[in-house]
Design goal:
mainly beta, 8-stranded antiparallel beta sheet, 11% helix
Length: 228
Amino acid sequence: MGQRWIPFTALATVLLAWAASPSFVAAGIIWDSGVLRAQSNVYNVFQPGSSVSDNPPDVIMTGPTASHSTSALIIAGASASAQTDITIGQSLHINAGSNFFYLVGSSSASASVSGTASFTATTTEYAQVTFSASTVRGSGRVTLKDPTDTTIATFSSSTFTPSPPNPLTFQLKPGLYTVQWNWGTQPFVGTGGQSGLQFHLSPGVPEPASLALLTLPAMLLVRRSRAA
């Protein structure tokens, strides 16, 4: 009776190729629901009673793409505005930002936007999250929660040191996920500016450590016996 060994290097190659090709695009993520909010305020001390606020009704998402905005302006030239939009397709992308300016130092303005959206993962996939934000007169965060309502990650512009690290690669298991975000300017007097955040969840590949675990079975040599 003889025995033939199948080299494990070939099996490792196959496993690596499989791990590096997640079926995220094929399975995708399915939009479920969402709500967007916006508010802005302007004030001028030189004009008693000259304060303007804009608090439009929430936008209830009726599809995988939605946007919301707010704007306030007073006669002296002080203004505040903000906008947020979200797209949930094969990937999930959020933009949130605000801009404002004043012509006199006695004016102040602030604006904020926020949102909550949920999506369903149809199968186990690897995903990657990236977060970027401008800290110029603005602050905010994005929080991602899994089907058990446990926070996977929180990205904050105030610390600028996201935890876990940014970008974050993780396993997206089947189920309903929730993403919450908010962005707002800080009340300022004088000249203004603009700021915002971007959050993007897209198909990813396992971390090197995960790849190593996936290839471990290949180290067990497969033996096939046959009659001599």
